[in-house]
Amino acid sequence: MAQINFYNLRQESEGDRALFACRLTEKALSLGHRVCLFAGSEARAREVDSLLWSFSPTSFIPHDMLLGDRPSAERVCIAAETLPKGCDDVVINLSSDALAEFDHIARVNEIIIQEPSALEQARARFRHYQQAGTRPEMIKL
Asked: Does domain 3-140 match CATH 3.40.50.10110?
């Protein structure tokens, strides 16, 4: 069963959410994990792609952007609309919906911002994972 973590940020913007996703990716990568950032749309995938190259003035995260379901050769990938084959270690969900199928994934990370509609979407994702039989962990930052 997947471990589900909800990171509860104090910030309100999608930009802060994306920036935290980059930092979380960097941390997971340093611990030896393979990371898939699930964007939910091609537009958001392109934003995350740009941010992974520029979020830190001293480093960048090599990655692959996937618009289909082909597997990635990189340890970090960005999936636009479908999770590609082989995404089974760490998935950072940046879409507004919960992952429909996540049993094959070791860890799913969700990031919450304090914007009213984003909070409602996060609550729905939390309930989805609970109803699927997991015990999501809430991490306040």
From this structure: yes
